[in-house]
Design goal:
By secondary structure, the protein is α/β, with parallel strands linked by helices. 47% of the residues lie in helices and 16% in strands. Strands 1, 2, 3, 4, 5, 6, 7, 8 and 9 form a nine-stranded mixed sheet that branches. Bound molecules: zinc ion.
Length: 385
């Protein structure tokens, strides 16, 4: 636990805010790589990929296009319809982590994933990937503490609005339909304004809980396994870059690595002062995916047998995507751990600093992580009911 605290502080206070594609994000990855090599990992790779600094550079223009499609439509109905359909297509594609959001159109920077593999003592029966992200977010009105409990509902609502506004050619024939399309476009405009507000007035946050703590805890767990390898489970440590700008590190990893049959255990925000939860579903109020039933079964058993760890389930978590979400969307096996009460402590706020990290939370995350790794190695998550 002392090592997890030290690594969390090193990233959050030593390196500081780690905006996707920034020099600090790279420095953080290099510093963590050094710590991991010192603590027994044999090889730790940094793999670069094309990325962007913020999800605002994708969702901002998409929402602005949807919001302005009505006005543009008054000048040229065809252009208005085209704009509104293009916004829907791009929004839908990004909602499922498609290729548009990874293209040169929105990705002008470079980010990297840290990857290390620890082979088991015996024959490889399965692969377990410990995941965390190294980058940190930017604050903004959309992450105000009075808004965060509703983020899942809000992003679901904006997704629905994007769909409704594209139905203008049909709905627009009736008065009530026109009102609905108008309201949907207003909501898209509000979303675009919030994206812009975050770029202009937001500040890059230290990201101690989200997610220096997860990078530290998953790194400590991997170092333990490096010293005492598992029986039949290959352990892969994946510390991603650019999670906060659209889970781009994980998308790049899934695109370039054969991960069929892998289990992913994601640590996102495990150091803040709140109870540790496992997510039963991921996504937002409109669209969500269930976490892997095998890993959930293991979590439920830990919850029953170790009440001292205070582990409990939660649906959706933040209401925004996690690194595990694209795994689930592609039909893979994943689950996420994170601390959360009604909302995540200091979520995407400048107050997410190392001094607010709880030793007890770090200790619990390590214990739960250890228990899940041991159970997976015993084959307890193999059967997929
Ligand atoms: Zn996070």
């Amino acid at each position: 636990m002392a090592r997890a605290r030290e690594w969390t502080t090193m990233l959050a206070s030593g390196v500081g805010p780690r905006r996707p594609c920034s020099d600090a994000e790279r420095e953080g990855a290099e510093a963590l790589r050094e710590r991991l090599l010192e603590s027994g990992l044999a090889g730790v790779d940094l793999t670069g990929f094309r990325s962007r600094a913020s999800f605002g550079s994708l969702y901002g223009p998409v929402l602005a296009a949807a919001a302005s499609a009505g006005l543009v439509g008054r000048l040229s109905p065809r252009l208005g319809t085209g704009l509104s359909l293009a916004a829907l297509a791009a929004g839908f594609d990004e909602g499922r982590f498609g290729r548009i959001g990874e293209s040169r159109l929105t990705c002008h920077g470079e980010s990297r994933n840290l990857v290390a593999t620890i082979e088991p003592k015996g024959e490889v029966v399965r692969t377990l990937c410990l995941v965390s992200h190294l980058d940190s977010s930017r604050s903004g009105l959309m992450f105000h503490p009075s808004v965060t409990p509703y983020l899942g509902r809000l992003s679901g609502l904006v997704g629905a609005a994007l769909g409704i506004q594209a139905l203008d050619p049909v709905l627009g024939r009736h008065r009530a339909g026109r009102g609905l399309v108008g309201a949907a476009r207003l909501l898209c405009g509000l979303g675009a304004a919030l994206m812009l507000e975050r770029e202009i007035r937001g500040e890059d946050v230290p990201g101690a809980n989200d997610n220096a703590s997860g990078a530290a805890v998953s790194g400590v767990l991997a170092s333990e396994v490096a010293v005492e390898p598992l029986k039949g489970t290959r352990l892969v440590l994946l510390v991603t870059g650019s999670e906060e700008s659209g889970v781009l590190g994980m998308r790049s990893f899934l695109r370039t690595t054969k991960t069929s049959g892998w289990l992913f255990l994601n640590f996102d925000g495990v150091g803040g002062d709140a109870p540790l939860r496992y997510l039963e579903r991921e996504g937002n109020a409109m669209q969500s995916w269930p976490a892997d039933s095998g890993i959930l079964e293991v979590m439920r058993r830990i919850e029953r047998e170790r009440p001292d760890l205070g582990l409990s389930p939660i649906a959706l978590g933040s209401g925004l995507p996690y690194d595990s979400t694209p795994v689930l969307v592609r039909g893979g096996r994943a689950a996420t751990l994170g601390v959360q009460a009604e909302s995540i402590p200091d979520y995407h706020a400048p107050t997410d600093t190392a001094d607010r990290i709880s030793d007890r939370s770090l200790g619990r995350a390590i214990e739960v992580g250890r228990a899940v790794i041991a159970a997976v190695d015993r084959g307890e998550a193999d059967g997929r009911p």
